[in-house]
Amino acid sequence: MDRNIGNADTYATPRIEARVEAIAHHFGEQAAPDVPAAVGLMLVASFATIMGSFLLLYTGSRFATMMVAISIVYTAIYLSVPTIFLRIDARRGGHVGMAEFLEKGLDTWTGHVGGREAIVQFLTIPVAIAIAVFGIGVAAALIL
């Protein structure tokens, strides 16, 4: 039994690394190893645009302000779970960069998708909602 607990070299043994790999195997696959973090930031930016539009254009009454506050809390919860998963995955390594993602794309159950096409699929709904929320808010501000 090794009693040299205070020595940092004790912790970096191949036996311990093998145990860590064995344990990591039980945690399943990475959430998104073939999608760069920049795509996640683009999604966060689109949701931030939606929430910013709500704050700027929809908080005319206290009831609307309460709706916006609830929406912001819900969005924070909605985005924090994938963020936690991706940060755990980042510790395991293996994520691609944006240039490699754009070049290689990614494989799905239904076939291969190019990188640019995948980004369009990721961002179409959030960006469309952001544009609609902003447009409706501006129209309501001009009309009302």
From TrEMBL:
Superkingdom: Bacteria
Task: Mark the transmembrane ranges.
Answer: 37-58, 65-88, 118-143
Q: Which UniProt keywords apply?
A: Membrane, Transmembrane, Transmembrane helix
* Name the record gives this protein: Yip1 domain-containing protein
- The species this protein belongs to is Sphingomonas oryzagri
